[in-house]
Every structure is written in C-alpha cells, then in structure tokens.
Amino acid sequence: MADGDDGAQTWRHETVTEGPWAGWIAYGSDPFEEHAGPFYYRLDAAGAPVCAMRTEAQHMNGGGFMHGGALMTFADYAIFVFAREHLQDGHSVTANFNADFVGAVPLGALLECRGEVVKGGRSLIFLRGLMTVEGQTVFSFSAVIKKTGKRT
Known about the structure:
Blueprint: E1 2-3, E2 9-10, E3 12-15, E4 25-28, H1 31-36, E5 40-43, E6 49-54, H2 68-82, E7 90-101, E8 110-120, E9 124-133, E10 136-150
C-alpha cells in the first residue's frame, strides 16, 4: 500500500522481477495482509487469477500446521484479487465469510488458491474458492464483499 499526497490509500500492483516469485504480482493495500503474508497472484493460461503463498514459521499453530486464522487471512486477500475488476472505483469490505478446514498445511508448503465471482451486483459481490497443496484441497470458502463507496 502507498499513501498519496493527500493521505489517501492507493493500490499497490507490482510484478515481481526476481527470486522465486518472479512473474507473480504483489497486489493489495491492506497493512495486516502485508504483515501476515507475503501473498501473490498471477493469471493462469485461461486468464483466471491464482493466488499463492509459501508457508513460513510465522503462519504455523502450536501443532506445527498452518493456523486457521492465517488460512482465513489468505482467503480474504484472495477474494479481493478475484473481485478486483468489480472493485476498481470504490472501497469495499468483507461482509460475510464461511470456511471449511479440510486438510492440514505443513511448514514450507506452496499454498495455492483459486476461486471465482459467483455474482457481482451493484453493492454485493458473491465469491467462492478452494485452496490446495500439491493438488489436494485443504480449505474451501465462500464470501460476500460489500461495496462501501467511491474512491476519492
């Protein structure tokens, strides 16, 4: 996230040019997600976004697997990536979030998230998604984003 001269928040949208995430896009404007990540996305061959992160020690729970709150934070990031074309001109918030924890995510795993906008309305956007590790589903979710007003 960056602050404009007037203090307004602006979206960060940068393609990574070096390292293991080269070609992926760093995207967002949320200080908590910046702290909780890093999170990235790219477009697959069909043009659909896929989000990804590599699990680190900071994401783990006491049992040695990814903390549920970290999974939900990554999913919350992903829904805004999936809905980005519906959100270009305004502010928005997560209004509803439903999740199913269906598998454990170990330290060092590449966690991928794919999803879609089910319906994009005037003020609400309905979404769903799945997270996988090595092709195995570990987390499924649905969410609703509420548009809250125009960007200034």
